[in-house]
Design goal:
Layout: H1 21-35, H2 42-54, H3 62-116, H4 143-154
Length: 155
């Protein structure tokens, strides 16, 4: 009996790319893949493509990459939610600060009015017969208030 001889044969196939737009696009993609030298040569590229197309069970598991991407998406969503919470807290603090400042300014304004019109001190502002005089323009504007004024107008 003779032992079986290993089959050592090479089959050569030719791939022709026509002048159609689809074939030319495919040819350009092949050239780019070969330039990256990820696949080695045209034969290795064709074998890998045929393997993944005809034998999908031997192809690498795309589920692992998908799971990793999903985990990264979840982590990014958590970070975005945390940042949104921090921004909301900062806005709430800013609004509280501004309300306190305006209340303080109102108190100061009432105090100045009482100093300017001591005869009306015991009366409430709604019982004035004459409209209150316009306050003198304040020569110095608080830069913080001037920056925050647009936010209060929106609020």
């Amino acid at each position: 009996m003779t032992s079986p001889q290993p089959v050592s044969w090479i089959v050569r196939r030719v791939v022709r790319f026509a002048q159609t737009e689809a074939d030319q696009t495919l040819l350009q993609a092949v050239e780019v893949a070969l330039e990256s030298q990820f696949h080695g040569n045209f034969s290795a590229l064709c074998k890998q493509a045929l393997r993944s197309f005809l034998l999908p069970e031997s192809a690498p598991n795309p589920g692992a990459a998908t799971t990793t991407l999903q985990q990264q998406i979840v982590e990014l969503q958590i970070q975005v939610a945390r940042l949104e919470g921090q921004m909301a807290a900062q806005q709430a603090n800013s609004i509280t600060f501004l309300v306190e400042k305006f209340e303080g300014m109102g108190d100061r304004l009432q105090h100045l009015e009482s100093l300017q019109h001591p005869k009306n001190q015991g009366q409430s502002p709604s019982t004035h017969a004459d409209p209150p005089p316009e306050p003198d323009p304040v020569p110095e504007v608080d830069p913080l208030l001037s920056r925050l004024a647009p936010f209060l107008e929106d609020f």
